[in-house]
Amino acid sequence: SQTIHQWPATLVQPVGSPLSLECTVEGTSNPNLYWYRQAAGRGLQLLFYSVGIGQISSEVPQNLSASRPQDRQFILSSKKLLLSDSGFYLCAWSSPGGRGDTQYFGPGTRLTVL
Amino acid sequence: QKEVEQDPGPLSVPEGAIVSLNCTYSNSAFQYFMWYRQYSRKGPELLMYTYSSGNKEDGRFTAQVDKSSKYISLFIRDSQPSDSATYLCAMSPYGGATNKLIFGTGTLLAVQP
Asked: CA angle at residue A90 from B71 to B77, to 5 degrees?
């Protein structure tokens, strides 16, 4: 069966510091990968998605970036965090070549920027 | 107007009640409809998936889609305290890797023992 991991689970960072969140998927090859941010009362906002190694599509212009250095690894980064970057970050995967709408989420990383 | 509207609740019901959760949407191109359950401080878990109109049943859960009214529902029968969570609806116009899911903001449900 497939599993998805995210770490760290929680993170408190000062404004202006860098960020690196990691997501890995097990039990599948060449998954589609997604990064979402969930803010209170605002639902899930798609930030990035990737259909393969090195292929990243950005949905929202901001100071975040994403990379996919390996088939089942997806990284969310920032060079300088803003207060507005606080939120619950979720990674998701879907089957390659299948319906991208059936997405499965990881446990999330709660980021607080002070 | 948001593409997907969902009452944030909270919705409080006694154990054993039938729960009705709803979403409305404005984009008539949506064809795929999903319900996710999210426990506090956890990632969303896919509950139900429906294509186009109609009903789908899975145990105590029933998903309904009425495309003519642009309205979807999730019914929970014999609700349990363990059903207490936030329920998110999601939808998309088509499948495929580059498809974007549009989520509602979620309804917080509390089932009282």
From this structure: 40
Q: pLDDT tens across A33-73, in order?
A: 999 999 876 789 899 999 899 999 888 867 899 999 999 99
Give the distance from residue A30's alpha carbon to the nearest chain B alpha carbon, in angstroms: 11
Residues B71-100: pLDDT tens digits?
A: 999 999 999 999 999 999 999 887 655 667
Interatomic CA distance for residues B61 and A43, integer angstroms: 22
Burial label for B107, CB within 10 Å (0-12, 13-18, 19+), is: buried
B62 pLDDT higher than 80: yes
State the DSSP H helix or E strand holding residue B39, giving kind and residue range, or none if neither: none
Chain A 61-80, CB below 8 Å of chain B: which residues? Answer: none
Residues A95/A31, Cβ–Cβ less than 8 Å: yes
Any B CB within 8 A of A90 CB: yes
**What percent of chain B stands above pLDDT 70?**
96
Cβ pair A39, A13 in contact under 8 A? no
| Interface check A49 vs B, CB under 8 A | yes
Mapped onto helix, strand or coil, the DSSP state of residue A84 is: helix
* Cβ-proximal residues to A100 (8 Å cutoff; 6+ apart), any chain: A32, A94, B92, B95, B96, B97, B98, B99
